[in-house]
Write a structure and sequence with these properties.
CATH class of the largest domain: Mainly Beta
Number of helices: 13
CATH superfamily of the largest domain: Electron Transport, Fmn-binding Protein, Chain A
Bound molecules: flavin mononucleotide
Radius of gyration: 24 Å
Length: 508
């Protein structure tokens, strides 16, 4: 039970606000250690299969509450340590990173997006304690894992990637898996419609190499911001500053015209080669199947810089749930909530949650709202389905605890009539080729569709079959008096009986 000083019936919302994301990657390891959320492994491991397979068991063998991150202190053939699952093993790890309780995740994102903090450039940073340029910079020095052993053709770098626009100089950050070709070159899964592609093509379309950097273990907030689906032009470093409540410190890269986070463990600098295209993949995709190989841009590595005793941090993806689905799901719910409320004027939307068991950005979102009229919930559902890559949108009233499967299931039975409350958008998906349900056997992908389930109240079904809030509050006093086992008043009950139910004044 959370100890918030409110007596036997605590309300975790009293923790909202005032807390900042963990400042650095090493601090994060300390905090996770204190909370039992990380395990150090001293036995030497083979990066070609052991870290990936152990990470898979973390996600596929343990219940979410028991998942941990792993730090491999000895990876055969590398002098660097390897860590995975620190930030996104579970909602607990993610909350430890952001410095909040689960109920405050969305508010934290909304606040960071409304109050971004511009990065500052500093003269030097720990990420450049050791600098290897040109031929000295060898990818095989790093403990880059193979993520789907036996099926991926090579090790893959899965981390924050920074690109820059040739004319505006604006930087963009995303996470794009990158296949190692040899010691000095890679092939990048830059999504053709993505922002990284827009930036790199602003150089390569004019025959110029495009600067690019893979940043390993930056400030944790920066890694989270990189996974957020943000509008083009909003630098993720600013949002990360908003999450931290302080600017991200950046230093000039050593071989490219880029700014990179000063506190990172390792930075791999390179340039995308104009006209350089190679086959990338097959790769174990986030949706649970092997992704098809395809022609993608090649980059040459121009430098590797790192801290002394650097730790290589790698995000696991492949069959969900994974670190990728946990991070993307928890991050993008807040991003969508902010867009709806503050950019699109949908002020009646109160909350949003994305499942952590699929692609995060392509799975299931549940929206809570107070509809203004009978069709409002459907309009919002269609809006969310259209503006995001999410496949399923469920809309419920704001009196439903959207994080409780029991409450959600109740609303889906009590307030949803499939024949009249379902909208199907056919052929509306942006990334059909990534949806295995319509994956072609040969030729073009099918037209992926979307579903909107409107489980809001459409007809007055009368009062809820519960005693009054007053009696239920008195029953909590009786509960205490009888010495029955204490519990946290669930959010669903707080939504039905009022936020103060069970709250006691703290004696001074
Ligand atoms: C572990 C992980 C791997 C990812 N791999 C890719 C990828 O290979 N290509 C891609 O386009 N997006 C990938 N994503 C999603 C993007 O990072 C995310 O959508 C981000 O918002 C893209 O940034 P952009 O819109 O600035 O390009 C991945 C996300 C995670 C967490």
């Amino acid at each position: 039970m959370l100890d918030c000083g409110g007596g036997a019936f605590n309300t975790p919302t009293s923790w909202l606000g005032g807390l900042m994301a963990v400042a650095g990657f090493r601090e994060l390891i300390d905090i996770l250690g204190e909370r039992g959320l990380v395990r150090q492994i001293d036995r030497p491991v083979d990066g070609a299969w052991e870290p990936a397979c152990l990470a898979k068991w973390i996600f596929h063998g343990l219940p979410e509450d028991e998942r941990i991150g792993l730090i491999f202190n000895k990876v055969i053939g590398s002098r660097f340590r390897l860590a995975t699952g620190l930030i996104g093993a579970s909602e607990r790890s993610y909350c430890a990173t952001l410095g909040v309780v689960p109920e405050a995740i969305n508010a934290t994102w909304v606040n960071a997006l409304l109050n971004p903090v511009a990065p500052v450039t500093v003269g030097q940073g720990p990420c450049q304690q050791v600098v290897q340029l040109g031929e000295q910079a060898r990818l095989s020095d790093l403990p880059i894992p193979v993520w789907t052993p036996g099926k991926d053709p090579a090790p893959y770098i899965t981390t924050l990637v920074i690109t820059r626009h040739a004319e505006t100089g604006e930087q963009n950050t995303g996470i794009y898996r990158t296949q190692v070709r040899d010691d000095h070159s890679v092939v990048i899964n830059l999504n053709a419609a993505g922002q990284g592609t827009r930036n790199t093509r602003s150089y390569t379309d004019h025959g110029r190499p495009a600067p690019i950097a893979w940043v390993i273990a930056p400030d944790p907030a920066f890694l989270l911001a990189a996974s957020a689906k943000l509008p083009y032009g909003l630098d993720e470093a600013r949002v990360a500053g908003g999450l931290n409540g302080a600017p991200i410190e950046m230093v000039r890269a050593r071989s490219q015209d880029l700014l990179v986070p000063a506190s990172a463990e390792i930075v791999i600098e390179g340039e995308v080669i104009p006209g350089g295209i190679e086959t990338e993949g097959p790769f174990g995709e986030f949706a649970g199947y092997m992704g098809h190989p395809g022609p993608r841009p090649v980059a040459r590595i121009t430098a590797i810089t790192h801290r002394h005793e650097a730790i290589y941090y790698a995000l696991t993806s492949q069959m969900p749930p994974s670190e990728s689905t946990v991070i993307q799901g928890l991050t993008n719910a807040g991003v969508i909530l902010k867009m709806l409320k503050y950019d699109l004027g949908e002020t009646n939307v109160t909350d949003a949650v994305i499942d952590r068991n699929f692609g995060g950005a392509m799975g299931h979102i549940v929206i809570a709202m107070d509809p203004r009229d009978a069709a409002h919930s459907k309009r919002v559902g269609v809006l969310v389905a259209t503006m995001t890559a999410l496949k399923r949108v469920t809309v419920v009233n704001s009196d439903v605890d959207i994080r409780s499967p029991v409450s959600l299931d109740w609303a889906l039975n009590a307030r949803y009539n499939p024949a009249s409350d379902t909208v199907i958008l056919d052929g509306a998906a942006q990334y059909s080729h990534m949806d295995p349900s319509v994956r072609p056997v040969a030729g073009k992908p099918g037209a992926a569709s979307k579903i909107i389930v409107d489980a809001t109240i459409k007809h007055d079904a009368g009062p809820l079959s519960l005693p009054s809030a007053e009696l239920m509050g008195r029953a909590l006093d009786l509960w205490r008096e009888l010495g029955l086992p204490p519990f946290d008043v669930p959010k669903q009950s707080r939504l039905r009986f009022g936020e103060d139910i069970g709250k006691k004044e703290v004696p001074t």
